[in-house]
Amino acid sequence: MSATATRIPSPTRQPRRPRRGLRRPGTLLLWLLLILGAIVTIAPVYWIFVTAVSPPDQVNTPEFSLWPDAMQWGSFATAFETQPILTWFLNSTIITIGAVIVTVFTSLLGGYAFAKYRFPCRDLLFVLVLVTITVPIQVIMVPEFIIVNSLGMTDTPWAVILPRSAEALAIFMARQFMLSIPDEMINAARVDGAGELTIFWRIVLPMSGPLIAVLVILTFVWRWNEFIWPLIALPSISSYTLPVGLNSMNSIYNSATGPIMAVSLISIVPVLIVFLLFQRRFVQGMASSGLK
Question: Which of 67, 90, 111 lies closest to 266 in space, CA to CA?
């Protein structure tokens, strides 16, 4: 081997360039807008927390402060000692879980029927279902209460669960999602002798995981935060849900907002837990049901 072996030139290091995405002004503007949106979204929750843990004299002063002078948890104790918070929380939990089960199940059945079955006036019926989205609850409130009262369900959880058991938006999302399920798979199951309920239970439902996650989150948020109809259908204080109970506390604690904010902070926790449990499939389900 000769001493004058050819040396391989070492590669020269190139200076690091900034990431291609960050060089674009549009990307930077997008990040700024996202940060601004996050701040606007989190600000109310932050204000509720600060007000709940602030001393009463600091809450009632007109001066604005980003953090309490001393963190106190007396507002939570005052709320639980003077009001049946646990009863309201239990009522909201029972009504919301029952409504989620009933609404998700009826929405899946309705969406499956509109997507995979051929029957007379199917499209017209689907349009009529969609039209009900535009009808405000104030229009149907009186006849709805008459029906519920005549059935003897007033002041019971069923008075809130059953009138909202079929949501037009949920049926629409279920129908759009189930259009993506191949008809050949369903027809093959029928040829093999499977019944309609078997097909729905063993084929359609296992393929509808993202859709079910979306419906669970949306229905949970709707029912947990619902105020107007529970205020009418649940007149007894022992039957109140958390939003209705918060409204009654607003009249009792005229100037002390600490207990109200403490209960408001507690009412946010279940919604966050449900969203964290189903967040992985939430975006996938929204995209699958909204792009068709």
Answer: 90
The burial class, CB within 10 Å (0-12 / 13-18 / 19+), for 175 is buried
Q: 128-131: long-range contacts at Cβ-Cβ below 8 A with a sequence spacing of 24 or more?
A: 129/168, 129/171, 129/172, 130/168, 130/172
Distance, in Å, from the CA atom of 275 to the CA atom of 270, rounded to the nearest integer, reads 9
Q: Distance between alpha carbon 83 and the CA centroid of its chain, in Å?
A: 27
Counting Cβ atoms within 10 Å, is residue 154 exposed (0-12), middle (13-18) or buried (19+)? middle
DSSP 18: P
Rounded to the nearest 5 degrees, what angle is found at the Cα of 202, between the Cα atoms of 205 and 116? 60
Tell me the two tokens of residue 271: 């919604």
Number of Cβ within 10 Å of residue 4's Cβ equals 6
Residue-wise pLDDT for 167-183, tens only, equals 899 999 999 989 988 88
Residue identified by tokens 């003897």 is 152
Measure CA of the first residue to CA of the last residue in the chain; give whole Å. 70
d(CA 86, CA 199): 42
Of 39, 82, 69, 65, nearest in space to 262 by CA: 82
Residues in the chain: 292
- Summarize pLDDT for 210-230 with one digit per residue, the tens: 889 889 999 999 999 999 999
Q: How many CA atoms within 13 Å lie on the side-chain side of 203?
A: 20
Return d(Cα 188, Cα 194) in angstroms, integer: 9
Dist. CA 274–CA 284, nearest whole Å? 16
